[in-house]
Design brief:
Layout (H helix, E strand, L loop, with lengths): L2 H54 L2 H4 L7 E4 L5 E7 L8 E9 L2 E14 L2 E10 H37 L1 H11 L17 H50 L6 H31 L7 E4 H18 L3 E6 L4 E5 L1 H17 L6 E9 L2 E8 L30 H11 L3 E7 L3 E9 L2
Parallel strand pairs: 7-9
Antiparallel strand pairs: 1-2, 2-5, 3-4, 4-5, 6-8, 9-10, 10-12, 11-12
Length: 438
């Protein structure tokens, strides 16, 4: 998972946890706030009542009441005020929830009870507000508070996502720069447009590291060129000297035999050096891919080149290319070497009178070229190892150095060709090349 996604998920998860905690804490908190607000309202009402009594006298509440008591409910019975004379010993000052029967209906109220003395008479004042109204107000507050919290969470998650996208943009630029590196020599150090010191340090570190890689790569190329020259030159000189000695008519037979064996050894050494040099140059991208290669022509050229070897072993080669493929930006000589090595192995390790089938056709969006033989096959546990250098899965034959398939694999990777091998011991081996169709 990407760093940006992880940070966004963490931010969202933390906000959701906070939201859940608030959802748990919010209802009792809002209820307490609503009750506190109601109590303050009841106290204000009490002050208003006392103001009226001070201005108009208490008779304004009791004059029209036959039992010298007063009670008044508003039209929806949400609030009430009551006042009546009481015995001084019954004074009760408190605010509490209590039940009242109003017109045959029992209702729950938040009631302020207050005893006071006026003109030698003690009165009990009660001011109440319906708890249903308080709960309705509380529920409304909770609902809108929840909407607000959810909106805040969504908004902050969106803001975090945008901020993280901007904050991590330098990281994406660094990754894209690294992904575009096809070869060390193509890398060019570039400054990073950011003020974040961590990203600047990372970019400078990568630039420094890649410059070291480029320097090491240049030294390796120089070393390969020098070593190949230094090794091939004396080998060629020794071969020429041996050839001159072999031309002498006075050589005894035993010396002649030893010279011939020495010449074979030098030839083998030269072939190994040239193969390793070829692999190294391909891996270092010292070959150009600037040719257009017709696959059908390539297959036919390989078959024509190797037909003499096939005839010597009585191996029949058949080609069936149902569809043709023209490769752009390719190297003909390298592709020829790749296919030649596979077909050559198919002949070398085939049965006397066996066959080789080269088929080409579309496989989905890719073109598949297969080379199947009827040879000795390769054990399943050896298949992952066949492309290693100097790895020979068959018995030593004096000609193979275990570099042919290493070259095949290197050329395939150089051309971004997917290479696959399937084999059944005693029945044969099939090499599959998957080409992207241009």
């Amino acid at each position: 998972m990407k760093l940006q996604s992880k940070l966004t998920l963490f931010s969202a998860a933390s906000k959701i946890v906070i939201l859940l905690l608030l959802v748990i804490v919010l209802p009792p908190l809002i209820n307490r706030v609503a009750l506190h607000s109601t109590d303050q309202r009841l106290l204000q009402k009490k002050e208003q009542v006392f103001d009226i009594i001070e201005i108009r006298g208490i008779d304004s509440f009791l004059a029209n009441s036959e039992d010298s008591a007063f009670g008044s409910y508003n039209i929806l019975k949400e609030e009430f005020i009551s006042m009546e004379p009481i015995d001084p010993s019954l004074i009760d000052n408190r605010i509490e929830n209590t039940l009242r029967k109003v017109e045959g209906e029992v209702m729950e109220y938040r009631v302020l009870s207050l005893g006071f003395e006026l003109h030698g008479q003690t009165y009990q004042l009660e001011i109440g507000r319906s708890l249903d109204t308080i709960r309705e107000t509380s529920d409304t507050l909770q609902r809108y508070a929840l909407y607000f919290l959810v909106g805040v969470v969504l908004f902050t998650v969106f803001i975090d996502l945008v901020f993280l996208k901007v904050l991590l943009r330098p990281m994406r630029l660094i990754l894209r720069k690294l992904q575009r590196i096809g070869h060390p020599e193509t890398f060019k150090p570039t400054p990073l447009p950011t003020s974040t010191s961590d990203f600047l340090y990372l970019n400078d570190t990568i630039n420094g590291m890649m410059l070291q890689v480029q320097d090491a790569f240049r030294k390796e190329k120089e070393f390969i060129g020098n070593v190949s020259h230094e090794l091939l030159t004396p080998v060629s000189i020794l071969q020429n000297r041996l050839e001159n000695l072999l031309a002498s008519p006075d050589l005894p037979d035993d010396v002649l035999l030893k010279l011939v064996e020495s010449q074979k050894t030098l030839h083998r050494l030269k072939s190994i050096i040239q193969a390793l040099l070829l692999i190294s140059r391909i891996e270092n991208e010292q070959y150009l891919k600037n040719e257009t290669v017709d696959l059908k022509t390539l297959v036919q050229d390989v078959v024509d080149e190797i037909s003499d070897r096939a005839e010597m072993k009585e191996v029949m080669i058949s080609t069936t290319l149902a569809e043709n493929l023209v490769l752009q930006n390719a190297n003909y000589s390298l592709l020829f070497t790749m296919l030649f090595n596979v077909v050559n192995n198919a002949i070398k390790y085939n049965k006397q009178g066996g066959s080789i089938r080269i088929n080409g056709s579309m496989n989905g969006k890719k073109y598949e070229l297969t080379v199947a033989d009827t040879g000795t096959g390769i054990a399943e546990d050896q298949l992952p190892k066949i492309f290693r250098r100097f790895k020979r899965t068959h018995a030593a034959d004096g000609e193979s150095y275990g570099l042919g398939l290493a070259i095949v694999n290197t050329v395939a990777k150089f051309h971004k060709i997917k290479l696959d091998v399937a084999s059944v011991p005693g029945e044969g081996t099939t090499f599959s090349f998957l080409f992207l169709k241009d």
